[in-house]
Amino acid sequence: MSRDTISYIVFGIVLILALVFDLGLLSKKNKTVTIKQALLQTIFWVALGLSFFVFMWFENGKTLALEYISAYLMEWSLSIDNIFVFILIFTSFSVKEQYYSRVLLLGILMAIVFRVIFITVGVALVNRFEWLLYIFGAFLVYTGFHMFTSKDDEGFDPETSKAYKAVKKLFPLTNSDGGGKLWIRQNGKRYYTTLFVVVMMLASIDLVFALDSIPAVMGISRDKMVIYTSNIFAVLGLRSLFFLLKGAVAKFDYLQEGIAIVLVFIGLKMIGAHWLEQWLSPTTLVFISLGVIIICITGSILLSIRKNNRAKQLQA
After folding, report:
1. CB–CB of 229/69 below 8 Å?
2. How do residues 12-52 score in pLDDT, each as one tens digit?
3. Three-state SS for 126?
4. What is the helix (H) or strand (E) element at residue 191, kind and residue range?
5. Distance, CA of 109 to CA of 117 (rounded, Å)
6. pLDDT for 313
7. Which contacts (CB < 8 Å, 24+ apart) does range 65-70 have?
8. Tens digits of per-residue pLDDT, 182-210?
9. Which residues partner with 94 through β-bridges?
10. Which of 14, 96, 285, 288 lies 20 to 30 Å (CA to CA) from residue 161?
């Protein structure tokens, strides 16, 4: 049995046990999640992600382990940026807070299925047509520059998005939340509730975000196991992170810029990979990527906190 096979088996077992623990012990159906519960759940998922890093280090060596933790941090930071759009979706469709947890779980599980398909296809294409990495790199540079110079999320309207229009066209909808149900029957006909719409919106919006995040992870590592595990661990922790940060995420004024710089850096690294690999070892390149991600994301959050503190002092 190969090391990769062992790692996949361990990952699968840990994932199943973690979901059972999270859903059975840390979550209750149709109950509002408190800040304390969200913090415990976030610590749980982050600890799990870091524990897998330790396992990777001993089982697959330091290079793959460092690639994993770099990719995980990249996905985790992008997840924070996604939360703002999730809040807009919940607000737009007037979802009751007691249903947040269930809707997020269903949306995230669907997103994971889509991401697995997306990653499988993407890795297969890159393995066959390696020049696609240069296109991905150029796309990340463009995306990062566009993200740095704009605030498009502020103008996002879920009800005018293509995802909502597609759902509205494909399914008969009702304006009711169905008392927490995804569909109800009226006059013998099935109608899909606003909660169903939100689940589909979350899954489709996450797929759009994956267009940035998956190429970014492929710029850090070409190993399928690293790409799969870092993505899934980060996405599964998104639900608890949403409850923890939903009141504060809008205050991270510089987070978008920090993520943008990271995307540009990884894009340039992908474009120049052939030349960089002649001068630097794979481990050194991973250390550099990890350092840039930590400095940019941590720095942007600290700058945001400093700005908010100054604003409060001026108002006082």
Report:
1. no
2. 887 787 777 766 555 555 566 777 777 888 888 888 888 98
3. helix
4. strand 189-192
5. 13
6. 74
7. 66/283, 66/286, 66/287, 66/290, 67/220, 67/221, 67/223, 67/226, 67/286, 68/221, 68/226, 68/229, 68/230, 69/290, 70/220, 70/221, 70/286, 70/289, 70/290, 70/293
8. 888 888 888 889 889 888 888 887 777 77
9. none
10. 96
Name, in order, each residue with C-beta under 8 angstroms of 180's C-beta and a sequence gap of 6 or more. Answer: 30, 98, 99, 102, 195
- Please give the radius of gyration of the chain, using alpha carbons only, rounded to the nearest integer: 20
pTM: 0.77
pLDDT at position 31: 65
**Token reading at 83:** 């939360």
Distances (CA, A) of 273 to 42, 88, 288: 34, 38, 13
Rounded distance, CA 170 to CA 64, Å?
43
Q: For residue 267, what are the CA distances in angstroms to 7, 218, 291? A: 28, 10, 16
Looking up tokens 């995307």 gives 263
